[in-house]
Amino acid sequence: MGRVLGIIAVVLVALVGGAAAFIYFAGPDRIARYAERRMSETTGREVRIAGPVDIDWSWSPRITVGGITMSNADWGSEPRMVSLGQLETVVRIWPLLRGKIELPEIIVDKPDILLERNKDGVGNWVFDVPAEAEAAAEAASPEDRSEFPVIGTLQVRDGRFRFIDQPKKIDIDSRISTTVASGTEGEEQLHIEGKGSIEGRPLRLELTGAPLLTLRESETPYPLKLDVKLGDTSLKAEGTLLEPVKLRGVDMRLDMNGGSLADSYALLGVPFPATGKYRIATRLIREGEVWKAEEIDGKVGESDLKGWLTFEPKQERPLIRADLRSEKLDLADLGGLVGLAPGQEDTDGKIIPDTPINLERLKAVDMEVAFKGGNIQGPLPLDAVQATLDLKNGRARVDPLKFTMALGTVGGNVVLDGSKTVPALATNLEISNVKLKPFFKDTPFEEETAGTLGGHIDLRGSGKSFSDIMGAADGDIAMVMAGGQVSALILEGAGIDIAEALGILISKDEPVAVRCMVAAFGVNDGIMKAKTLVLDTEDTNIAGDMEVALGKETMRGRIEAHPKDATIASGRTPVTFGGTFMEPKVGIEAGPLAAKGAAAVALGALLTPLAALIPLVDLGGGEDSPCGELISNAKAGNQGKPVNPGKPDQGPSKEPSKKEKAEKKGE
Hints:
667 residues; alpha+beta
């Protein structure tokens, strides 16, 4: 911008200097030809002055020049870059002889200016000029406000300014004029109104500035007011610029609102995720080359947002640093982080989004963001979230990531690497001391459900969407629950009596006590297969097998009961399940029951990997927990029967079975 202003200054000096030097020796026509030649040499573009040219000579001559045009770059969309219907200015001679430009009055009639970038990002304001002309333009460029020409009044009549940026799909056509604002004692205010489009969305803008004379007053901040509407995104800014020539010393209040933060990318260049409706207010300042948003006060959907953010231009990618916090955060408002629309829970009948990951936006900026949140609303309410995001060249790492809850903790790290053609995801999360009851909040099962969960999730995969990544993932998933209980109503659900099918004796007013639950899966190429799937109750061990296709979101499996007491009815039947994540199906397997001996052997084999899982999770009991006891029983060949720890020779525990409890209660 400074270079362009320098060229304009050289043009003015050429006009005025040429007039002063040759006024007594040549007519206006020769003066115009001289000015044409000087401007053409300075810009490297053809400059024409069609006239008329008139000079009303005095110590402050009034110069009127009509029909000025400058050609566009060879690749330009139109032949002309600049055209002026008429330029009229008053110049003070004595300051000009001292190298100072003082213009008491400038009147510009019908200016038409076209600035544009081609598909390679080259602007038409980049001139192909000789080195000496380049040096002259740089020397004439104002370094600060005090070097800007002293302008008394500026009038722009019926002006037009157009800006086209092919790479960013920007097309703006604006009207420029100066008006006498009410209450300003006749001062001319700069007024710009524009319309056009950015990325196909309609754009309207309005800018109001103080008289240009204020630009010269280095101690006076230059007031500015901006109103932009892009699609349903609205941005309003009002404040001052201490150094308008170099856009420094910015201190403005900014208010922005719209349907989704993702839509603000064209205005701000920040790759926000898709969100619900939002409103953000902040104080925007610029210190050196760094922009800073302080006192952020915003709301996204039903979530609040506060903190600060800085934006630092870099040669390769801008750097954003932020420290944000939220007292109330609804995870549905941030569904765009995983490719969902705000509030959307599935896409095309699937839970895992299959929207392609936007690598271009992921690589647009680098980010260092710390976030803390409380009262997190989602499928499972959380009391606190802590996350630190480090994004470099398209590789996003969230480490540490910690969900701290009254019911337990989930912690670890997640990496989304978008630096290559196909993005890759890696998760390493530990789950500890998580209570089961909140999962069933506000359901009929809440009161009778209890237990403590632990486990880990270790997955790695690559693909163009999160669905593709899961469809190609490798790794391990394990969950263990030590102690607890399951509502009897759950076992009577799904249109069949699961308890009856498995041979479990339940009472209508009592939940089923669970001593231990283990679910361990190996994941290979998106197929999750059970290594261990066991539920140990007081009377029965329930073991099974399960296979899940993560990409297709389908599953199939069966579970089978293994009674601990031979007196329990043997008419049990395996329960099967299948369907999709969105529509699971439960049924009863037809055909004869497998041999008891074979089932017993299978159960012992299934329990064997459990010993390796216990140290990985925080169960609050370790080897002394019911799960630890289950392992000991399996190793001792007792098929999960309770024993007195350390005294295997005393045989099974004398604790009554559930059948005996039911019979006793019936008596």
